[in-house]
Amino acid sequence: MEMPVVPTGVSDSMRDIYEMGLAMGNDPTRFSIIGDCQNVSSYFLSVFDNPGEFSLGAEYAYLQPTVDYYQGSYSRESLAVKGGFNAAAVLSPLRADPKECNKNESPLDCELRVWKPSVVYVSMETWWSEKPEEEYDKYMRRVIDRILEAGAVPIIATKADNLEGDHGINATIAQIAYDYDIPLWNYWAAVQPLPSHGLWSDGFHLTFARNFFDDPDRMESAWPWRNLTALQALDVVRKDLGDED
Q1: How do the pLDDT tens digits run along the chain, 245 residues long?
Q2: What are phi and psi of 237, to 5 degrees?
Q3: 209 and which of 170, 201, 218, 219 could share a cystine (Cβ 3.0–4.6 Å)?
Q4: Vertex 230, ends 23 and 43: CA angle to 5°?
Q5: Which residues are within 8 A (CB) of 89 and not within 5 positions of it... i.e. 6 or more apart?
């Protein structure tokens, strides 16, 4: 997969979506996460709401304004993130939190309504290894359509694993990013240089270390790279949307 790890910018069509979202009441300083167990707040991004639990180091110090800009979103528990969630589940009202969501509201719609984000990470890895890419494609496009209707800019992520055996899911994700002209966070490319490509022996779970990006030993594991490259993608999107400090 030749695409870069982080997007190079934001398309004009996504800038239009973003502006539409602001007019609809979306908060430019908020992002949401849509996904499965690889996106639970205890592992994914939450450290950026907690100074002292991460280190950018000199090389990545340029990311600090983005860390500051989205404070409060990093450690928030999304209503559309849960272990075992997939693109079909986040569209199903049966999977929504009954305490937070309206009747007949999907987890995705609930999250978009409650948090009003301007940017949305979409990262779906689970369940689809035994399903055809056509089904994955169908549901993911519904997810992207709904996010765009809500006036938010999706950042769609590739996955580290290849449980399906032919990289078909990541190829589908890349095609969706191309078709919709949305930012692609190519996490798969980020973990390829790591030992065992950043995966446990089960071929799915990511190797863990704390998020000190100036520690070469820790940067041999996948989780620091997941958080770092997700932040880099968000940084590119923020700056290209004009939300510079």
Answers
A1: 578 999 999 999 999 999 999 999 999 999 999 999 888 888 999 999 999 999 999 999 999 999 999 999 999 999 999 988 889 999 999 999 999 999 999 999 999 999 999 999 999 876 666 667 888 899 999 999 999 999 999 999 999 999 888 898 999 999 999 999 999 999 999 999 999 999 999 998 999 999 999 999 999 999 999 999 999 999 999 999 986 65
A2: -65, -45
A3: 218
A4: 110
A5: 82, 95, 107
Does a structural domain hold residue 76? yes
Check: CB of residue 233 under 8 Å from CB of residue 153: no
* CATH number of the domain encompassing residue 73: 3.40.50.1110
| Interior/surface letters 203-215, b for 16+ CB within 10 angstroms, e for the rest | ebbbbebebbbee
On whether residue 102 sits in a domain, the answer given is yes
Angle at 62 between CA 56 and CA 67, to 5 degrees: 65
Look at the block and give the residue holding tokens 């890349």: 174
Number of domains composing the chain: 1
One-letter amino acid for residue 178 of the chain: Y
Q: Is this structure's pTM higher than 0.90?
A: yes
